[in-house]
Amino acid sequence: MNKKILLLSATVLLVINSCNNSPVAPPEDQPGRRDYTWTVDTVNYPNSINRLWGSSPSDLWAVGPAGNLSKTIWHYDGEKWSTDGIFRLISATSIFGFSKYNVFIGTHGGQIWHFDENGWKEITALSKDGNSNIGFENIWGESLNNFYVFGAYPDDRGYFNNSVIAHYNSSNNWTMLSTDGLKGTVEHLYRNLYYDKIYIQAMDIGGGEYYDSTIIYEYYNGKYNKIYSSVWAKGLQSDISLINGEVYFILGNKIAKRVNNQFQTFLEVDNPNFYQRIWGRNSKDIFFSMTDGLVHYNGTDMKYLFRLERPSNYILQAALFENEVFFLVIDYPNNLNLIYHGKIEKGG
After folding, report:
1. In a domain? residue 236
2. Helices in the chain by DSSP H: which ranges?
């Protein structure tokens, strides 16, 4: 990858790849299967693993912030999890890729790392408003030539509330985008394929002066419009998830879609253990994070796929493939990172 990095003006608008504002009809969805066989692996890292991504069930990556700098990056080859043991000055906070040899890591410190056939290397270090203390919370994009890294840098009180979004394009240029109108750590950014709008979820850290809050924005025609906010507390949290090209909104116990600038309830979750996290392949194949396990929705009903051993465990991340699924579970009291691996037999 070319090492030349160009940081452009902060007034650039987010890229939307279509000029057609008419909605595109989503495909007909099929109910997801539930006959998984489950195994559990432990990733032996002294800190919590916080991000998971993979190109296939035999090529997964997991990363965590600085703890042991020779074990911040883990890989699964279809049989076992391992780390290469190379010492790197990196506090990995996000990971996303487009193929086996095109994977990117964002760090706490503004660095971006890239993995190819030759291994991992730092390709750039970004800053905004003269501040390089950026925590890149997440990465998302539709292609190798069009993706975003995002997070925040500290405000005057030291909390990461100054929003940051950087865009990478096909010319090997990094563009630091304007975030006027945003506040908080940008945790998710997705484009809704069917309505051609970008949605952003940010966490505004109160720091004891007021409640931590989640804010959801819609980006359209060069403006960030706040469309929802909630207190960051169990049962009240909000979030967004991209499922089969469509953005789903988790608004407390309701799952909604955004149609004609209005929220339309897709599903209400009556289980009080719902922890406002969902992942899915389509509208009839969705996984729900619960404080006591993992629940699946198949378009008709909801059913537990597994129960967590301890009430303090927490399902943090997921990687979904056609016949296999992986869920990152954090066991905080025992300082364990657990990977729940579910597999169904093909054609069964």
Report:
1. yes
2. none
Say how far apart CA 345 and CA 148 lie, in whole Å: 35
pTM here is 0.91
The CATH number of residue 62's host domain is 2.130.10.10
Domain containing 96 equals 26-343
How many domains is the chain partitioned into structurally? 1
Length of the chain: 348
User: What sign results for the dihedral spanned by CA atoms 44, 318, 237, 272?
Assistant: negative
Reported as a single tens digit per residue, the pLDDT across 280-333 is 999 999 999 999 999 999 999 999 999 998 777 889 999 999 999 999 999 888
- Direct distance between the N- and C-terminal alpha carbons of the chain, in angstroms, rounded to an integer: 43
Rounded to the nearest 10°, the torsion over CA 175, 181, 187, 191 is -70
HSE at residue 132, side-chain half, CA atoms within 13 A, is 6
Decide if 6 is inside a domain.
Answer: no
Report DSSP state, residue 128.
B
Residue 106 CB partners (closer than 8 Å, separation 6+): 92, 93, 94, 95, 112, 136, 137, 138, 139, 149, 151
Q: Is residue 148 part of a domain?
A: yes
